[in-house]
Amino acid sequence: GQAAGGRVPLLLVGPSVRAGYRITTPADHYSLLALVEDEFGLRRLRGAACRCTPSLGSAFAGGMPPRLNGR
């Protein structure tokens, strides 16, 4: 058979996730890495640094999830 293009379903759950939001831009594991790097103010590394890699931040109300430190 043929490869499925590396697609992996991702379900985001939480109080700041937009209800019913669907990301239509193809994303991959680097998109999740980009979200974490952006959230903690880190420089994007490897594949996440590519301008072609979308962040998953748009799935959160306000653009980014609340920080893990409780803010």
Element layout with pairings:
Elements: H1 29-39
Describe the structure.
The chain has 71 residues and is mainly α. Helix content is 15%, strand content 0%. The protein contains one helix and no strands. The longest helix is centred in the middle third of the chain and has 11 residues, at 29-39.
Order of helices and strands: H
How is the biggest beta sheet arranged? none
Distance between the termini: 47 Å
Uncertain stretches: none
The coarse overall form would be globular
Helix content: 10-25%
Give keywords.
71 residues; mainly alpha; 1 helix; globular
Q: What would a concise description of this structure say?
A:
This protein has 71 residues and is mainly α. It is built from one helix and no strands.
